[in-house]
Design brief:
This protein has nine helices and no strands. It is mainly α.
């Protein structure tokens, strides 16, 4: 039984990985379940055992990306002591995660148009989850007097909105260029926006070639 569960989970992940490749080549709307099944070396019945339709696999990919971003951010935050450094770590991890997974990033920021209400509600929830993580540490910074009192709920969403705009411009560029190079400037501007004037621009993050996803 345990062996069968492992094989089933491996097949599940193989289908997800194949879907990324197919969606990246063909776009979400032009891709078919048959193409994903062939790419994953799985029967069509095997696909439907794991996912009821194409939208379900798109939602699963979004959940995977959101969970990865949240997990990476929380791990980075745990190594910091003060709230400003924690917020900084979350921002840095977001840049690194998007840069490491250009295919997934493009899927969710560009290919997701017209994918339906369920997807956009799930995407909004993922964005809110990350914004709330930033908000929590901005609240701590206000409480400790590190930044002046402000509406941290709005500030955190402004932060995510700025990040979203920069990343969207990056994935739409041809060629995309180095997303990491934008980090020092956006970091400086966002911290200035909440009253952290002591934060100076830092060297760009090391460039990455981007992972297969």
């Amino acid at each position: 039984m345990a062996g069968e569960q492992v094989r089933s989970q491996q097949r599940h992940e193989r289908i997800l990985d194949a879907a990324i490749r197919v969606f990246s080549r063909r776009g979400y709307h032009d891709s078919t379940v048959d193409e994903i099944a062939i790419e994953s070396e799985t029967s069509k019945g095997g696909f439907y055992f794991h996912f009821p339709n194409k939208q379900a696999i798109f939602l699963a990919l979004l959940d995977r990306m959101a969970a990865m971003l949240r997990s990476r951010a929380e791990k980075a935050i745990d190594s910091q002591l003060d709230p400003i450094s924690k917020a900084d770590s979350a921002l840095r991890v977001a840049f690194e995660t998007f840069a490491d997974h250009p295919r997934l990033t493009r899927l969710f920021l560009v290919e997701s148009m017209g994918t339906g209400r369920d997807f956009h509600e799930r995407l909004a929830a993922a964005r809110s989850s990350f914004a709330e993580l930033i908000e929590k540490h901005l609240d701590e910074a206000v409480a400790q007097g590190a930044i002046p009192p402000l509406d941290t709920a709005i500030a955190s969403r402004v932060w995510f909105g700025a990040l979203n705009e920069v990343v969207t411009a990056w994935v739409l560029a041809d060629p995309p260029g180095d997303l990491q190079a934008a980090y020092p400037t956006i970091r400086y501007l966002l911290f200035q926006s909440v009253g952290v004037h002591a934060v100076a621009p830092v060297p760009a993050l090391p460039a990455t070639n981007g992972g297969p996803a």
